[in-house]
Amino acid sequence: MKAICLSVLTLTTVFVGLLPAQTKIATVEGITEYKLDNGLEVLFFPDKAKPTFTVNVTYLVGSRNEGYGETGMAHLLEHMMFKGTAKLNDIGKLLSNHGGNYNGSTYFDRTNYFETMPASDENLRWTLDMEADRMVNSRVSRADLDSEMTVVRNEFEAGENRPMSILEERVMSTAYLWHGYGRSPIGSKSDIEHVPIPALQAFYHKYYQPDDAVLVVAGNFDEAKTMEWVKATLGAIPKPSRTLTETYTVEPTQDGEREVTLRRVGDMQAVAVAYHIPAGSHPDMAPLEVLEAILDETPSGRLYKALVETKKAMSESGDTMNLHDPGLAIFTAQVRKDGSLEDVEKTMLGVIDGIVKEPPSKEEVDRARNRLLKNIDLELNNSQNVSIVLSEWASMGDWRLMFLDRDRIRKVTPEDVARVAALYLKSSNRTLGLFIPDAKPDRSEIPATPDITATVKDYKGDAAVEQGEAFDPSPANIDSRTVRVTLPNGMKLALLSKKNRGGTVFAVLNLHYGDEKSLFGKEPAAQMAGALLMRGTQKHTRQQIQDELDKLKAQMGASAGIMTGASVSISTVRAGLPGALSLAAEVLRQPAFPESEFEQIRQATIGRAESQKSDPGSLAMNALYRHINPYPAGDPREFTTIDETIDGLKKVSIDDVRKFYAAFYGASNAELAVVGDFDVAEIQKLATSLFGDWKSPSPYTVIKRDVSKVDVMNQTIETPDKPNAVFVAGMTMPLNVNDPDYAALVFANTMIGGGSQSRLWQRIREKDGLSYGVGTSITGGAQDNLGQFLTQAISNPQNVAKVEVDFKDELAKILRDGFTAEEVATAKKAFLQERQVGRSQDRGLAGTLARYAQIGWTMQHDTDLESKIATLTPADILAALKRHVNEASISYVKGGDFKGAGSKPSAQ
Fold this sequence. Notes:
By secondary structure, this protein is α+β, with helices and mostly antiparallel strands.
C-alpha cells in the first residue's frame, strides 16, 4: 500500500527506462483499445478536426457496489476527488487555469471524471499526470469531507424538490428487493451525513486503482506520444495486490404486481410504470429499445397518442435502462393537478398490455429503428460526446457493446419486438398496480448477463467515420472563411464551410418582427405560433415532418417569442442539409396550425407553468425580474407572473395565432447562419430560392429596454415542503457593449461569480460549504443600454441567511479592494481559452454568426473585446465596478420552506 501512495512525480522518476508495455486489444471504427501491465484499460479516439482533447477516466464503481451503510460513497468520492492531493491542491481551480471544461458524474455502475481542454502537449501531459496523482493520492480527509458535506447534502435536497425524480427513485426501490440498483447513486441522507472517514478512505483505496479504471483520450492528440505519457503516469502506478470481488446479488424473479404512493406538495400528478428487463449486454435489449420508442416517441408513440393527444396527460416518456446487471424499462406520464390520475393509469396499462395483443406493425418498427439509428449515427460523429458515452458501455462490461447494440438494432424485426413485449410486459413483472392474488402466476425469468468476452470476440464494426480538418477557431480565421451575403429581401446569410468528422453541419435561422406598439399584448399568440411551427404544414403532417427528418439524418427545432422573434435550428450531415433547409422553409412559410395540435400544446404549456407555482427557483427569479424590470401589462418587455402567463394561455385562440403569423412572419429582417460541411455556392443559391422573395408584412424595429429606477427590496417567498431553497439578487445599470467599461465588467464577472474559481464560489461553496451551486452574470445591451448584475445560489433553507451574508461581505471586499494581479492574470488565461474553445463548437458558432449578422458585427467584435481584456489592469477593473455596481441598489428574493425548516431566511 505504501507504493500506491507515492506521488506521481516519484512514480515517474522510479520507472524511467522501465515503462510498462501496452497490449493492443482491438480497433473498432476509429477507437483503439490497449491494456497496460497494471490492468489499466486505455481507449484512443483521435479526431484531428477538434481543436481540443477530452480525457475521461471511468472507475467501474457505482451504487451497485455499495452495501448497506455505504450508500452514496461513490458519489461522495466524486466530490472529494476535486479537493486535491499532497502535490496538487484544488484540482478544479487548476483545471480552470488550464482552460478546461470539466465535470464528474456517478451512476449505478461507474464514476467518471472528464475534462475538455485546448489541444496542446503541455495540457495533455499535465492532465494525465493529474489523473494519475488523484487516482491513488487524493487526500479524502475529514477536513475536506466536512467542508463539502453541506454542498453534497444541498445537492440531495435539490433532487428532493422534484417529485418526478423522487417517484422514479421510489419505483426503483420497490422494484428491487435486494439488488443495489434499488438504491439511488446519490445515497441515503443518513449515510451521507454519517459516513466514517476510514470507511470512505477504504472504499477509495479499494476501487480507485488502475485495474478498475478505463482511460479514454479523444480529440486532437498524437497517439504515439500520448501512449508514452500514459505509461509514464497512470501506467507507472503498480497493479494492486488486492482482488476485486464482483457483485453477486441476483434480483429474484418478481412474483406479483407492486405499488408505491408518494405524497408531497406539488402542482402536477404523475404515474410511473416499471418492468424488469435483461442487462444492457443482452441481445433482447435491442428489440426492447425499439419497443420503448414505439410506445413513447413523439408524436407517433402509442402512449403519446393515448395520453397527450387526448389531453389526459401533459407529457409522457420512457426509458430502457442499459446497465451491467438486469435493469428496468420505465414509462412515466405527467398529469395536470385537475386531471384524472386513475384514468391515466388505466390508459397507460391498457396501452402497454395492448401491445402484446396488438403487436407493432412493420411501419412502427421501421420508424422507431430509423430514429434510433439516426441518433446513434449523429452521436458517433462527435468524438467528445462518444468519449463520455463510452463510460456507460464500458461499465456494462465492454465499450464495444456500444457498436454491437447499434448492429443489433439494425436487425430488429416486428417479430422480435412482439416476442420481448410478451416476455417482459407482464402484470406479474410490473411495479405500480395493486396486489392481485393469482393462482397461476405468470412470471418473467430474466436471463443471466451474457459472457461479454465471447459476445464481443472478433467484433470489427463499421468502417471508421471520415475525419474532419484541423480548424483554427480564431476570430480572424472565422471571418476569413465566412461568406456573408444579403438577399434581395434583406435577409442576411453567414456561411462558414469546414470539413467535419462525419460531415456534420449546423444551421440557425432567425426571424425578427414587429415593434413595441404592434406587438403589445401578443406574447401568448407569439409563443403558441412558434410552438406550432413543427406540428404540421400545408404539405406534411407532424409525423411526416419527423419521418422526413429521420431520412435526412437531421434534427430540427423551432420556437418563438415576442422579444426573441422566431428561430429554427438544424443539425444534420452534408447530404441532409439541402433537404432540411427546404423543410425549414416549408415549416416557416406554410404552417398549417392544426387546431388539435394547438390544444395539446396549450394544455401542456399551462401544465408546465402550473408546475412552477410551488417551485422556489421559478418564483424567486420571476419576482426579481418583475421588480427590477417593471413594464406595464401587455408591454412586450413585461415579465408576467406565473398566474398571468396561465391566464394569457387560457385566453389565446387558434385564430389569434393565425392572425399573428399573417401579420408578422416574413424574412425581410432575418439571418441564416450555417457552419460545417456543406457547399457554400449550393446553399447560397438554395437559400435565395427558399427565402429571397419572402418579405415581412409589417415593419420591424428593435424593442429597446431601459433602466428603471426602483426601490430595493428584500422579499421572502414561502414554498412548503421544498427542502431546497433559492437565493437570487440583482440590479440594473446603464450599460452597452460599446461602453468603455463593458470589457472590464464582463471580465470581472468571471472573478466575482462566473465560475468555479470565482470569489463567491470559493467563499460560499468551497470555504463555507453552503451551496451546491452559486453564480453571477453581468450583461450589457447590444442594441439598447440596459445592463444587469444578477446572482443565484441554492442552499438548505436554514443556510439562506448565511448565503446572503457571504454574498454581501464578499461583494463589499471586491468593491473595496478589487482583485490581485495574480487573480487577474490567471483569470485572463482561462477566460480567453474558454472563448477560443467556445468558438470551436459549430452549433454555438452558428448562433453567434446569426446574432452578429443581425447587429452588423463580424468576428472582429470578439478580437476587439479580447484585446481590451488582455490589457486590463486590476485598477481598471475595480474602477469600472465602482462606477456601475452599487451595493445599495441590489434587491434580494429568497424562495424556500423556511417555516418548515424553522429558519430566518434574511440576513437583515
